[in-house]
Design a protein that fits this description.
This protein has 6 helices and 9 strands, in the order αβαββαβαββββαβα. The chain is an alpha+beta fold and about 180 residues long. The protein folds into 2 domains: about 90 residues, 2-Layer Sandwich (Alpha-Beta Plaits); about 80 residues, Alpha-Beta Plaits (2-Layer Sandwich), CATH 3.30.70. Strand 2 and strand 3 form a beta hairpin. Helix 4 crosses helix 6.
């Protein structure tokens, strides 16, 4: 097949980003992740950073189905899997344009993170929630917007997010989300 035709057809398909939970350079090589997605017939596959972020084009637009497909492909090809969250690049760009963090002020050195939930929270939360330099500012749909100041005890923000929302989620820095939206 003509390579130019394949590439041109890819751009007619929606673009997505998969965020894998619990990935580090020690437990998954990005080249292996890329090969798994290419074997699953996704196109224009590009990994972003080394923390389990990968952009791709797909013919189907159901994010949950795409996530399950990637998990199954990882299991088949690598003998292990990681929980996967998928968002369209269009959704990420709208999120960035809305810039929920612009509504808040932060202490010096604070970091902003986005948590992608797999399901809506069970209860209405009284926000903001604050704990040891961490502030959960806002929940919008399936995304949580949090800031934190690095803590000597390590990632206390992750503990608060898991305590509040459970483990069915994955978190990325605002800067990583920006990079993913451009992939």
């Amino acid at each position: 097949m003509d390579e130019r035709k394949t590439s041109a057809n890819s751009y007619l398909m929606p673009r997505f980003v998969a965020f894998l939970r619990g990935v580090s350079p020690m437990n998954l090589k990005m080249a292996d992740l890329k090969q798994c997605l290419e074997a699953a017939v996704f196109t224009e596959v590009k990994t972003i950073l080394s923390s389990g972020n990968v952009a791709f084009h797909a013919t189907i637009g159901d994010e949950e189905a795409l996530a399950r497909s990637i998990e199954e492909q990882l299991q088949r090809k690598l003998g292990r899997s990681f929980p996967v969250t998928v968002r369209s690049v269009e959704h990420l760009r709208k999120l960035l344009a809305r810039d929920p963090f612009s509504n808040y002020s932060f202490p010096k050195g604070a970091k902003q993170v986005v948590t992608f939930l797999w399901r809506a929270p069970d209860a209405k939360l009284a926000l903001p929630i604050r704990y040891e330099g961490v502030t959960i500012h806002e929940v919008k749909g399936l995304e949580v917007f949090t800031s934190y100041v690095p803590h000597p005890k390590g990632p206390v923000f992750m503990n608060l997010l898991e305590k509040t929302f459970g483990k069915e989620q994955t978190t990325r820095t605002w800067e990583t989300v920006k990079k993913c939206s451009q992939a």
